[in-house]
Amino acid sequence: MVEGYVPVIDLSSARSSAEADRRLGAVIDEVCRTSGFLVIVGHGVPRDAISDMYRATREFFALPAEDKAKLLAAPEDPLMRGFGRKGSLAASNRDAEVEHERKLPDVSETFTINRLGEPDGADRLPADADPALATPNQWPELPGFAEAYRGYYAAMETLAGDIMRLFALALDLPEDWFEDKIDRHMTNLTANYYPRQIEPPAPGQLRKGVHSDWGSLTILYQDDGPGGLQVQDKNGEWLDVPYIEGSFVVNIGDLMAIWTNNRWVSTVHRVVNPPRELADMERYSVPFFHQPSYDALIECIPTCTGPDNPPRHASVRSGDYIVGKFSRAYGG
Ligand SMILES: O=C(O)CCC(=O)C(=O)O
Ligand SMILES: [Fe+2]
Predict the structure, then answer these.
(1) Single pTM value for the model
(2) Which residues contact ligand 1 via a Cβ below 6 A?
């Protein structure tokens, strides 16, 4: 383990013994109370799954603008599957000036798929959910693209399940505590493309504005392009998240803060513009925004409350929460 506000944690000892699991759980609890951000190695995701996904991502964003535009997310899709080039995550913040944020959209393009967009997607939803949540994924006509993305998505599903098991241990819960709350998860896998900045962005405009993530946890692949990810520490300073080859960045989202009664923090972060002398370099990142099953009720976990620590948040269904966030960031 490498110490720091965003420490590096090796997961390879997970499941090797009860003692190893206990130690990993204790470290994770400490980090999630402090920054809510860690870098993981020893995660077991096959190298080829990552490199195939990265190659497919670069090929997609290199397509002519008119080809990407054919996959533009349908306005009625609440999860924006397909290609996106407008909007600001910062508009979803609690105190955001939504119209102002939307006038300064993130300087990025995105491409999104969701498990609900696969052929059996509708079976994963409760009867009262918006049927548009099962809008089919949109695939570019690039050889190998859909296979690479489906393979990477499956690898992330496994890893997210492994991390949620460690989270349960970290919270003194049975190791399978989260299982029936994530077995029909509705996770967006989003590729972020940050183009070269021939013209400087407008004052105040960022590659990705200040925001917290919305779900249970995010598993982020990032490349080493300049103009990268920063997290805010307790003093308000912005710290660079290190790039470590073969690693993923993992961070807590809002729903995990609600679940844990704020024992764990959903820390705000942003993606800065590259310095002008490196402005001709692009960057790619691919977050897997793990989102519990639509009808998982996110309410204070029993081990996170006590006589002096009453529940602080109203309970909310996972699906209702994310649909509300999307509509605030991108809707209307
Ligand atoms: O590009 C990155 O490194 C992070 C992007 C991010 O925070 C997001 O998409 O939520
Ligand atoms: Fe984020």
Answers:
(1) 0.97
(2) 192, 208, 213, 220, 222, 229, 269, 271, 285, 287
